């Protein structure tokens, strides 16, 4: 087994004792195949049990361990040491208040998530006895990509707009709204649009695309937001066409929900 | 201490906890529901399940066939009334999840697709590519946001149940953000806190799988059932223990030893099925216990490959082709590539068996009720038992749904029927005592013991003595070692004295839970002098239905004593114990 030694420079902050965040450097003996999280776990187990951070699955699906690694938002369980030099700087995700050390406060996202109604909305529920909704593979394909979000918050840490205006609903929540809008079983787009197309919704996005670049699950929130802008613009024009426009809009949405 | 009053408290917000919460909100909108979790719901380990969820839906399938696959797969240790109920309700629950938006993979006609799974005679595993658990969890979590009655306490770590006059009346928890104790006074508590696979060093389980809820119930006097039955999943990545779903074999992947030979045919699971044409319930689609045991025998024969992370065999998917791998198994392709540097499209993937699931758990009846009034349990932390001595892959995700809902309905009925009310003063006294016990952890003098050190010794003794194959000597040594570790844990100090997000104290408590549970695993295994399902004894190699067609029941006897082991009859309704036949020849 090949070993190497790295220097981990980790941001520390304990609100009870520290006036400001500071950096602590740990020298960590590592295996070549380790990820940054393994090195942080080594620190916790062998050097400093007071270091606080979140992690669980170690396979890039629970979304707990997002951190800034050398200034980039990454999942520390999928940041391989082989891709870094001897010195690695680890900080909590940007744009979020620090709770302690590498733990950030997630209240803002958890409050925004229910506002976009990320669940199937229907006028009438189909009884269970009538079985499943039919959904063809191409209909599944329409939204599948946007259902892959693990809520790791890397996109919020990367989004310059969220950094400037924390009222912005932000990439992950908007992509999730889009996921349900595009689901053939759903009839809730109008309700969601009241939130997503309003102030602090999709129009806040300046299409830098940083969210899609850092997304570890290739969700492409930036693409979702642009599609939503287009759909919202269409709606705006159709509404202004009077009766004809309303009929077109009705037929467009009934096409999606006729199953 | 902050006090929260609620009708029902649920501990754990994974698949079972979220399903229970939604069922409570739907049963009675007037109920107050408090859902506690030591992590945010979407971090729960349900997210790591890959392969799928079993439920009879296709015309070529039958409830009877799912029943007999499950009971035989469990080596007849399942309670058959529970299995029957489970199988009857499974299709409804999976369909409900479909209505809630779960992105199940589809047939070309738009109906839900099913894939083959180990030990199942008919294709009946619903799947969402190879991220089924992830999609189930997020569908449930997102759907739960519809219900304002569900009050979540995220990142609140439950430490103890509050028991007053023989009834559960709530729980105590540490709010991670502030470090303050909270008492949640409740008329009923549902534990959905998951398994404790983290007591082993090499596991698919995430860091949070430390069995806290099981330990809580155990210390409160509820027996833990069938704890000796620990499932090894046959295909984990070496080094990390990352799971490569059974769906790999369901889609046609095969296992090969160092000579490229498909060795399962030598262990009662032959004859060899044609490459790319998997035959149900034989060879690579045999049950997990048999496959993991076959690995062990290959290792003894020297037929494994040596890697720096231990002995391995190969999982070969190359013949599936890139298109099918990308459609059905994109996540595991990425995992193997990233964490083992192997592209399964072009190369065979080294794998080895890895601790995955605990069949045993908190003793409940078919209504998800424990013997302790007011306490219910569902999911991996519970043992109903539908899984017996060996769970079939894809039954557990469905179990979360069926029994999560059932626990909720039972809790509602209990509250209504018993007219129970919380004795606030008595509950407060209990909670105050718990708070004092937690505070005392901080006052322990700093000694030589460390959490990581004790944990490593627990790993070594569990892997060495209570692994795939066990015997009297190994288990005796392991039980003795665990008794010693439990004593040493009493002197383990919390070095980090701060209040906010103190994971040091959390890890001390989690280790305490795991040591208690590990002792029930080893003690139950030592007493079961037979081989059945996942429990294999080198010194008692046969199944012994005369003596051990029974559930083992481990009861807590304090901090310094090992558990008392007792037995409970298995419920048999229509399937008498028989031979588990996974040879393809006879079918």
TrEMBL record, chain A:
<keyword id="KW-0001">2Fe-2S</keyword>
<keyword id="KW-0560">Oxidoreductase</keyword>
<comment type="subunit">
    <text>Part of an enzyme complex containing three subunits: a flavoprotein (frdA), an iron-sulfur protein (frdB), and diheme cytochrome b (frdC).</text>
</comment>
<keyword id="KW-0479">Metal-binding</keyword>
<dbReference type="Pfam" id="PF13085">
    <property type="entry name" value="Fer2_3"/>
</dbReference>
<keyword id="KW-0004">4Fe-4S</keyword>
<dbReference type="InterPro" id="IPR004489">
    <property type="entry name" value="Succ_DH/fum_Rdtase_Fe-S"/>
</dbReference>
<dbReference type="GO" id="GO:0051538">
    <property type="term" value="F:3 iron, 4 sulfur cluster binding"/>
</dbReference>
<keyword id="KW-0408">Iron</keyword>
<keyword id="KW-0003">3Fe-4S</keyword>
<dbReference type="InterPro" id="IPR025192">
    <property type="entry name" value="Succ_DH/fum_Rdtase_N"/>
</dbReference>
<dbReference type="InterPro" id="IPR009051">
    <property type="entry name" value="Helical_ferredxn"/>
</dbReference>
<dbReference type="InterPro" id="IPR036010">
    <property type="entry name" value="2Fe-2S_ferredoxin-like_sf"/>
</dbReference>
<dbReference type="InterPro" id="IPR006058">
    <property type="entry name" value="2Fe2S_fd_BS"/>
</dbReference>
<dbReference type="InterPro" id="IPR017896">
    <property type="entry name" value="4Fe4S_Fe-S-bd"/>
</dbReference>
<dbReference type="GO" id="GO:0022904">
    <property type="term" value="P:respiratory electron transport chain"/>
</dbReference>
<comment type="similarity">
    <text>Belongs to the succinate dehydrogenase/fumarate reductase iron-sulfur protein family.</text>
</comment>
<protein>
    <recommendedName>
        <fullName>Fumarate reductase iron-sulfur subunit</fullName>
        <ecNumber>1.3.5.1</ecNumber>
    </recommendedName>
</protein>
<dbReference type="GO" id="GO:0006099">
    <property type="term" value="P:tricarboxylic acid cycle"/>
</dbReference>
<dbReference type="GO" id="GO:0051537">
    <property type="term" value="F:2 iron, 2 sulfur cluster binding"/>
</dbReference>
<dbReference type="GO" id="GO:0008177">
    <property type="term" value="F:succinate dehydrogenase (quinone) activity"/>
</dbReference>
<feature type="domain" description="2Fe-2S ferredoxin-type">
    <location>
        <begin position="6"/>
        <end position="94"/>
    </location>
</feature>
TrEMBL record, chain B:
<keyword id="KW-0813">Transport</keyword>
<dbReference type="GO" id="GO:0009055">
    <property type="term" value="F:electron transfer activity"/>
</dbReference>
<dbReference type="InterPro" id="IPR005884">
    <property type="entry name" value="Fum_red_fp"/>
</dbReference>
<feature type="binding site">
    <location>
        <begin position="396"/>
        <end position="397"/>
    </location>
    <ligand>
        <name>FAD</name>
    </ligand>
</feature>
<feature type="binding site">
    <location>
        <begin position="12"/>
        <end position="17"/>
    </location>
    <ligand>
        <name>FAD</name>
    </ligand>
</feature>
<dbReference type="InterPro" id="IPR003952">
    <property type="entry name" value="FRD_SDH_FAD_BS"/>
</dbReference>
<dbReference type="GO" id="GO:0022900">
    <property type="term" value="P:electron transport chain"/>
</dbReference>
<keyword id="KW-0285">Flavoprotein</keyword>
<dbReference type="GO" id="GO:0005886">
    <property type="term" value="C:plasma membrane"/>
</dbReference>
<feature type="binding site">
    <location>
        <position position="380"/>
    </location>
    <ligand>
        <name>FAD</name>
    </ligand>
</feature>
<dbReference type="InterPro" id="IPR037099">
    <property type="entry name" value="Fum_R/Succ_DH_flav-like_C_sf"/>
</dbReference>
<dbReference type="InterPro" id="IPR027477">
    <property type="entry name" value="Succ_DH/fumarate_Rdtase_cat_sf"/>
</dbReference>
<keyword id="KW-0547">Nucleotide-binding</keyword>
<keyword id="KW-0274">FAD</keyword>
<dbReference type="InterPro" id="IPR003953">
    <property type="entry name" value="FAD-dep_OxRdtase_2_FAD-bd"/>
</dbReference>
<keyword id="KW-0472">Membrane</keyword>
<comment type="subunit">
    <text>Part of an enzyme complex containing four subunits: a flavoprotein (FrdA), an iron-sulfur protein (FrdB), and two hydrophobic anchor proteins (FrdC and FrdD).</text>
</comment>
<keyword id="KW-0249">Electron transport</keyword>
<dbReference type="Pfam" id="PF00890">
    <property type="entry name" value="FAD_binding_2"/>
</dbReference>
<dbReference type="InterPro" id="IPR014006">
    <property type="entry name" value="Succ_Dhase_FrdA_Gneg"/>
</dbReference>
<dbReference type="GO" id="GO:0008177">
    <property type="term" value="F:succinate dehydrogenase (quinone) activity"/>
</dbReference>
<dbReference type="GO" id="GO:0050660">
    <property type="term" value="F:flavin adenine dinucleotide binding"/>
</dbReference>
